[in-house]
Design a protein that fits this description.
This protein is an alpha/beta fold. The chain has two domains: about 130 residues, Urease, subunit C, domain 1 (Roll); about 290 residues, Alpha-Beta Barrel (TIM Barrel). Helix content is about 40%, strand content about 20%. It contains 17 helices and 16 strands. Strands 5, 6, 7, 8, 9, 10, 11, 12 and 13 form a nine-stranded parallel beta sheet that branches. Helix 16 crosses helix 17. It starts with a strand and ends with a helix. About 55% of the residues are buried. It is an enzyme of class 3 (hydrolase). Its EC number is 3.5.4.3.
Length: about 450
Amino acid sequence: MTDVLIRGRVLTFVREPEGIDDTRAYRYYEDGAVLVANGKVANVGTYADLAKQAGSGISIADHRPNLVLPGLIDAHLHFPQTQAIASYGAQLLEWLNTYIFVEEQKFKEREHAAFIAGRFMDELLSNGTTTAVAYCSVHPESVDAFFTAAEARDMLMVGGKVMMDRNAPETLRDTPKKGYDETKQMIGKWHGRGRAHYAISPRFAITSTPEQMEMSRALVAEHPDCYVQTHLSENKDEIAFATSLYPEAKDYTDIYARYGLLGRKTLLGHCIHMSDREISVLAETGAVGVFCPTSNLFLGSGLFDRDRFDKLGARHSVATDVGAGTSFSMLETMDEAYKVLHLQGQRLSPLHSFYMMTLGNARALDLEHRIGSLHAGADADIVILDSRAKPAMELRMQVASSLAEELFVLQTMGDDRCVAEVYVAGRPMKQGRREQAKSPVGRAAELA
């Protein structure tokens, strides 16, 4: 693995910003550099200092005047829904039955799963996302495809097969025992292999019987180092249906609590229509509510109340939720997050947006020692952002006078065109794909 000195305007967060003027929340080097060795960050600082440290033989990747940041992190999305994005006109339960369950049946076929997994990973990278937490389909073949594609790109990814044994087409249902056995097999095969992390994934209470929830409880107890992912309180009809299936539960959140599924490694998609009691349970257990703004708007689900989570001390993160989410871009996602919060009288500063996409989401995954910031010893997952990538952005940037203004331009107007380069474990991915496309050997390998 080649050592490299990545030069540009380096920005990395060290804590959650308390406001738009909180300069202590981040480190910024106007002419900065990241020294990468063996796929890790060896040092971060000014270019002058690091060039001396690295010596004359170091390879230099000069990305001036662009910003150099940690790779972006997406805390919740569905890889089998990659081709179902932009499916018209339905709210959650109708949308699942009309489009999603139809699409996910294709993932029994290994070739289809492998094709979509490759395109999914490349779409993430094109948008500057180097780590994501994803649901696979109910089929083990989809899990193999997901982690194989991630491993080929050396990406740190979290994922797992959905467990669902009711209220879905027969071809998408497992059984409590089958769901347990296949999940355990996939954990043994993939969790901790390279950069792979497994997520035990009962889809949501509506599609899992009490017997399957008991099996989920057993898996969590047996594999406490795995993540847990599911959905919670996305849609009012969903809440009514879920609580009718578990009448003994106090509320929707209590369903998961009764089966021991809430903890620091639990990621709960959406968390929109929740009582203070439910949010307090998340705070007590350390479970993470995942804010999915483009999805919540697209399906007409509702508005995530971030300030109430903060007031009650509950953890939260942010995600695209493709394919109900309408973009793989975390920049476009934060643009919609700003609007969702603005509608509720809540502020989302550009500093906070970039913190959430990097260190904030890394902390939600308890992976801040590896990803989400640029510090010695971190994995060298890095994104290069060009705030002048579009003509309208270039025009706007002519009058931008601060770093915060520039970040807000990126957040509000940015998309995949702003991603100039992405490094995964120190390897340039956009340039690498261009070189592979030019190479007859690389092209043959891609087609094989």
